[in-house]
């Protein structure tokens, strides 16, 4: 649970009077210009950053939100942006707020300059207007809750008011002996005691007690505050310092007897006293009686006057001024106090007994005083390199000189003979090998080795001649590593030199740092970081494409983390990431960055002095920048372990914004959408990381890359679910995050019923078009059939009048001739005449068929039966015609073609199949007309089926052509058990026009 409210300031009118009195009679302990600035990271926000002005109250609710009240109204702040209350759906009674606070149940209370109060809980405000719910006129000092759970309202002239069960403010029962007069402050301490300060005294109501007790008489205005040790203190503008009201045995009542008369104050969790006043803000160190540090407008405060002070749950200190808001937070890094030095960066070397050598001083630890062993450096007398030998000797190189330091005494060492202009020769790097010899790089003037008091050029190793060394070191195996310009590296192993360059994959530019490892070495330079495994180099890149440029220092912490001193600050890469990067060049390492936001001043020098990073024997790491030196134990760095609350705050589209609400419905035509979100981590809001996902749209988590909004386009109507997670400045993730479900309403043209209506319209239109086409096809068929009928009638007439008449005449002549023959000679000719008569009869039938005989009254079924029954009698085969469904009138052309197909199929069955049974089934279905001719004969030969008929015969091809003419389909199935012909015609085509 969020800690109970500790401090409630006095009323606005009293505060204004107190500020005036304080400005007249208060005297600082010492002049402000003599007070050092508050040694914390300081950030300010003013109106240009969106901050409200005239801030008189700050509070934080358990959900993590920081609330700011004052002359500009009520605001909500997430560390990155300020939101006015009305922009997030809240409507305070007034825009002039004097005090804010939080009740133990987490509700935010606020009171107004001209009277009235409000409670904010669960996103809703409950108002107490003057004259309503028993709310008295006049300003108020705020709301408070005692140990018994009673809710109190402090008034400016009527004492306390207690809220009844009906939500109405009433005067307390006489038995409580509640104080009257003007209530200036209320506080409930950690033990549950309720404290009230009025214009004439301080009163307490212990938890479980039945009445208030007077604890102190007062004459001036003041407030109440609880110290971290549990002691209760009050201020009095008529008397300087703070006054002890209650405390543990042994608490010194004079602890805070400072000379100032305090109008507002706060004890932070470390016990320091914060004092905002008309001069800015002061910070008194715990247990000290004089102001220790001050920040004012001249030193970066947002305004001239400090009005209020507040500490959040991450230990940030917030100060409200007339012009804006200020934040103070403890810096992770603290510059070491060193002698004044004007030449920039300083070289480092570890001391064998702990601490470090820095430039020309020895320090036993980060907080120890610097003990010089030589006169301070100057622009003309620089120390450019330090190296601590295994025997405890410190080697110090500079411009024009080399020294060794033992027992705090410095002794000059002559430079190699023959150097050109030795007075201006700079020593870039120093190292000792396994034999104790000193190696000194003098840049392009050469590499020299000092062994047994004698110098030798390039160590007597020919392979190192002309190799301009910029950095060097020895590894535990006795090998020497040498870095140079232009991506060059050399390794000296037992007198043999191996050289590497860009062709081997080295791409760090000038090598300025070498850190040997168990199975290789880490190489740092102006252009980046690389791992060398003895055969090849692997470039190392950080997440987000971080190149790690400008490296002049590499050092391992005790846990194996690699720390880098580079152009962007200090970077740390964990050992697990180092191992992966060593084998996977595409892997981007995770890293921690310490920079100006953590108190780092300056960055690594671009070349000398070297080294710029070391590890002391106690495990502390030391880094040199162009501005100062910093030392810390990485295991003891302050960490922010609070999981940040995550919220989706608003949806925006088309210039409109809607506060986020679960299940919210967005208006139609919302296709472009902005989703605003935040995480409440105030130490370093710019370092808060976000990942988000709109389910069904995003493929996996998206990195927000510092933004607190996600943008989408071309969103369709429907339901969506947005998720966002966040991490604080130390990478602690809230994996649960926030979820918002919302819906985009469809427009009229996007609704399902509209689409169904459109689809129905399209179907109807297609149906109409289909009907029109069918009618057009039917009319075409009818026209063609009429033409065919006319032509067939003409052919029939021609055949009847010519061929058939001629045959008939020929038969008559032959008959007459036969009758003149004797009886024995007639028989063959009579048989021929009989056959001729059959041919003539068949010819007449064909001619009749050409003329198109109308269907009988029984329709198509009777026509087929009339054709099949004589054949059945002649062949002794069972024949039947079956009708399924209700017979209906058929289109004349369709009926004629269908009858022709059926007659041909029936004829073929009787003549060729040798069946026992032939059945014709007519089926009148809603969708189609089907005619099936089935026989149980011997089936068709496969070659006839494959070829579509017998060569020179046109029965089957004709049947298929007739079916195609009426948009029908003719199917054939045959086997040794019989043959099935099936004609299928769409009913829309088959039905007569009168039946459609």
From TrEMBL:
List each copy of the Two component regulator three Y domain by range: 682-744
Which Gene Ontology cellular-component terms appear in the entry? membrane
A Pfam entry, by short name? Y_Y_Y
Histidine kinase/HSP90-like ATPase domain mapped to chain residues: 900-988
* Residues covered by the Signal transduction histidine kinase subgroup 3 dimerisation and phosphoacceptor domain: 791-852
Q: Which SUPFAM superfamilies match?
A: ATPase domain of HSP90 chaperone/DNA topoisomerase II/histidine kinase (SSF55874), Calcium-dependent phosphotriesterase (SSF63829)
The GO terms this record gives for MF are:
phosphorelay sensor kinase activity; protein dimerization activity
**What CDD domains has UniProt attached to this entry?**
HATPase_UhpB-NarQ-NarX-like
Transmembrane among the record's keywords? Answer: yes
Renumbered to this chain, the signal peptide range is 1-26
Ranges annotated as spanning the membrane: 752-769
User: Under what name is this protein listed?
Assistant: Signal transduction histidine kinase/ligand-binding sensor domain-containing protein
């Amino acid at each position: 649970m969020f800690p109970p409210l500790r401090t409630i300031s006095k009323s606005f009118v009293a505060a204004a009077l107190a500020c005036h009195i304080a400005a007249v009679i208060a005297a600082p302990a010492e002049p402000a210009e003599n007070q050092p600035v508050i040694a914390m990271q300081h950030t300010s926000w003013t109106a240009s950053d969106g901050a409200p002005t005239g801030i008189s109250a700050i509070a934080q609710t358990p959900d993590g939100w920081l609330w700011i009240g004052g002359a500009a109204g009520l605001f909500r702040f997430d560390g990155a942006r300020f939101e006015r209350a009305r922009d997030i759906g809240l409507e305070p009674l007034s825009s002039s707020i004097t005090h804010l606070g939080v009740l133990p149940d987490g509700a935010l209370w606020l009171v107004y300059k001209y009277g009235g109060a409000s409670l904010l809980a669960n996103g809703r405000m409950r108002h107490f207007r003057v004259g309503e719910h028993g709310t008295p006129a006049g300003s108020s000092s705020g709301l408070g809750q005692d140990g018994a759970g009673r809710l109190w309202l402090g008034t400016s002239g009527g004492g306390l008011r207690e809220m009844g069960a009906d939500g109405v403010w009433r005067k307390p029962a006489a038995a409580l002996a509640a104080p009257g007069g003007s209530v200036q402050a209320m506080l409930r301490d950690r033990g549950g005691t309720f404290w009230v300060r009025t214009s004439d005294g301080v009163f307490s109501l212990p938890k479980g007690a039945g009445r208030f007790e007077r604890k102190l008489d007062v004459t001036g205005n003041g407030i109440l505050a609880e110290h971290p040790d549990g002691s209760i203190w009050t201020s009095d503008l008529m008397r300087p310092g703070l006054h002890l009201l209650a405390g543990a045995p042994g608490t010194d009542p004079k602890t805070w007897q400072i000379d100032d008369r305090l109008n507002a104050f706060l004890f932070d969790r470390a016990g320091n006293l914060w004092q905002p006043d008309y001069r800015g803000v002061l910070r008194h160190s715990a247990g000290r009686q004089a102001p220790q540090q001050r920040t004012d407008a001249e030193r970066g405060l947002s305004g001239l006057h400090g009005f209020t002070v507040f500490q959040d749950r991450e230990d940030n200190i917030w100060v409200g001024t007339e012009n804006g808001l200020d934040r103070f937070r403890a810096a992770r890094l603290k510059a070491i106090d060193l002698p004044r030095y004007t030449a920039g960066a300083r070289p480092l070397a570890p001391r064998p007994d702990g601490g470090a050598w820095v430039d020309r001083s020895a320090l036993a630890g980060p907080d120890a005083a610097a003990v010089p062993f030589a006169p301070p450096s100057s622009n003309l007398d620089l120390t450019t390199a330090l190296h601590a030998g295994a025997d405890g000797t410190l080697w110090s190189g500079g411009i024009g000189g080399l020294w060794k330091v033992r027992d705090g005494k410095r002794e000059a060492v002559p430079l190699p003979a023959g150097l050109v202009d030795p007075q201006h020769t700079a020593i870039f790097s120093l190292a000792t090998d396994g034999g104790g010899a000193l190696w000194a790089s003098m840049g392009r003037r050469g590499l020299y080795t000092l062994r047994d008091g004698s110098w030798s050029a390039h160590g007597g190793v020919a392979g190192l001649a002309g190799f301009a060394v910029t950095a060097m070191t020895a590894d535990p195996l006795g090998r020497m590593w040498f870095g140079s310009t232009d991506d060059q590296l050399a390794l000296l192993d037992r007198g043999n030199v191996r050289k590497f360059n860009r062709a081997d994959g080295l791409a760090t530019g000038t090598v300025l740092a070498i850190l040997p490892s168990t199975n290789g070495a880490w190489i740092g330079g102006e252009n980046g970081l690389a791992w060398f495994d003895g055969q090849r180099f692997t470039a190392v890149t950080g997440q987000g494409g971080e190149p790690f440029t400008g490296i002049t220092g590499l050092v391992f912490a005790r846990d194996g983390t690699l720390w880098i001193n580079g152009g962007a600050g200090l970077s740390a890469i964990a050992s697990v990431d180092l191992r992966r990067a060593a084998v996977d060049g595409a892997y981007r390492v995770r890293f921690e960055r310490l920079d100006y936001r953590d108190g780092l001043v300056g960055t690594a020098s671009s070349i000398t002095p070297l080294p710029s990073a070391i590890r002391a024997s106690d495990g502390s790491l030391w880094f040199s920048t162009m501005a100062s030196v910093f030392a810390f134990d990485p295991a003891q760095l302050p960490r922010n372990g609070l999981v940040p609350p995550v919220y989706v705050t608003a949806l925006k589209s088309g210039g409109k914004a809607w506060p986020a609400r679960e299940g919210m419905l967005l208006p139609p035509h919302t296709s472009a959408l902005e989703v605003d979100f935040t995480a409440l981590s105030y130490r370093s809001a710019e370092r808060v990381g976000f990942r988000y996902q709109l389910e069904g749209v995003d493929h996996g988590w998206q990195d927000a890359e510092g933004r607190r909004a996600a943008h989408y386009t071309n969103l369709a109507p429907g339901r969506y679910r947005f998720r966002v997670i966040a991490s604080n400045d130390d990478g602690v993730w809230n994996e649960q995050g926030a979820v918002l479900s919302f819906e985009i309403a469809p427009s009229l043209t996007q609704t399902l019923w509209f689409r169904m209506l459109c689809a129905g319209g399209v179907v109807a239109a297609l149906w109409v078009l289909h009907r029109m086409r069918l009618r057009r096809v039917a009319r075409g068929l009818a026209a063609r059939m009429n033409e065919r009928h006319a032509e067939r009638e003409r052919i029939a007439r021609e055949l009847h009048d010519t061929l058939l008449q001629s045959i008939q005449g020929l038969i008559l002549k032959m008959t007459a001739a036969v009758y003149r023959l004797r009886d024995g000679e007639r028989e063959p000719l009579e048989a021929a005449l009989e056959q001729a008569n059959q041919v003539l009869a068949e010819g007449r039938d064909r001619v009749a068929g050409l003329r198109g005989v109308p269907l009988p009254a029984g329709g198509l079924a009777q026509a087929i039966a009339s054709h099949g029954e004589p054949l059945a009698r002649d062949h002794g085969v069972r024949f039947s015609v079956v009708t399924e469904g209700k017979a209906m009138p058929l289109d004349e052309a369709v009926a004629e073609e269908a009858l022709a197909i059926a007659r041909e199929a029936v004829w073929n069955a009787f003549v060729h199949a040798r069946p026992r049974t032939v059945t014709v089934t007519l089926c009148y279905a809603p969708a189609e007309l089907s005619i099936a001719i089935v026989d149980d004969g011997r089936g068709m030969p496969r070659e006839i089926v494959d070829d579509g008929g017998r060569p020179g015969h046109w029965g089957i091809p004709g049947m298929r052509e007739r079916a195609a003419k009426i948009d029908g389909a003719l199917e054939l199935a045959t086997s040794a058990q019989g043959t099935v012909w099936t004609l299928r015609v769409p009913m829309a085509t088959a039905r007569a026009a009168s039946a459609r």
